[in-house]
Amino acid sequence: MRNLIPCRSLGWLRPRRVALMGIAAALLAGCAASPSPSVGPIDAIDAIVVEEMQRQRIPGMAVAVVQRGQVVRAAGFGLANVEHVVPVTTSTVFQTGSLAKQLTAVAVMLQVEDGLLDLDGSITRHFPGAPDSWKGITVRHLLTHTSGIPNYDERLLDYRKDYTEDQLVQFAFGLQPEFPAGSRWSYSDTGYVLLGALVRKASGRFYGDVLRERVFGPLGMASARVISEEDIVLHRAGGYRLDGETLKNQAWVAPTLNTTADGSLYLSLQDWLAWERALRQRAVLGAASWEQVFTPVRLNSGQSFPHGFGWELGDGSGPAGYRHEGAWQGFQTAYLHATEADLSVIVLSNLAEAKPMHIAERLAQICLPEPKPTAPQVQAGPDPLPAARGSASSCR
User: Fold this and answer.
1) For the chain, first and last CA: distance in Å?
2) CA-to-CA distance for 139 and 122, rounded, in angstroms?
3) pTM recorded for the entire structure
4) Is 330 helix (H, G, I), strand (E, B) or coil?
5) Alpha-carbon distance 391 to 327, whole Å?
6) pLDDT digits over 342-367, tens only?
7) Which of 99, 129, 165, 318 is the most exposed place for a label (fewest CB within 10 A)?
């Protein structure tokens, strides 16, 4: 399902010694500046995307809006690779960042369904060298960010050093839990790194291989895969960041840190559309497992928190649904679903400073009768919500 590329906005794109004015003029031909009440949904979607790309200075984006199973719009905008002037299409492969946590959760739930993992069993069963403070931590705690295990970042790990999976697990063993498991919510990429290790320990397979064989292959997600710098990856987008007024390439990280289960996948818009259909049909997993995925976590206090397995869930402040964002290495991504309207919006971008959820919310307004959905107001105690692969920081 390869769509023609609509208007592309590159007027702001002036990296030093790179002349793109002629290209920008050609790509901008016919683009509207903003939607008007008289235009149809496709024109309104395109106008919002172009406007936001100009305002946020985003090189390239892929955007899909799906309602009641029908694709309202799926298209690429701008450039996937600025240096080679390669346009974005629906086949362009973007890094996912933390948007991939939902897929890690599915890989874990497949092990639960196979009887190889126990959602409410202690993870120390699979990590015999874990500290005593981990005895109360379960698989469910890792999935819902309620384990208390701190989030790693570049202050704790050397992003330019290759680590084995066992070394990352040993590193996690040295982190002192910030609170008793289940008592609070606090975002933890470390927990999802451990989930990838748990999948291997339970199944004997790398989590990426589990996803390829049991999710990507059966669903026709042809370009979905774990990140690799050395492999030839067709239609791979470049990730970018802004250094003042200058566009630069993404920061480099060690290859093994781009294979961990906290958000190290490549997916194209076509792959995400296949996954959107799977979510609607509740494919791959059984009904009971999907119910677990989309149930808000219950804390030790008895109160629930609006987070499931790899998803932020509605907290009553907007239309019920689920959402998540991702950020890593010059990419920002967002997925928003409003349940009552049966509306999904997917936004993939290749700029570290981009705000894709803001764009997704604007696009949702076109099809939603209610006010736009707002992000759950997460209160994780004294610690703010870390922007790990879910914002523009160097964390995932």
Assistant:
1) 30
2) 7
3) 0.86
4) coil
5) 5
6) 999 999 999 999 999 999 999 999 98
7) 129
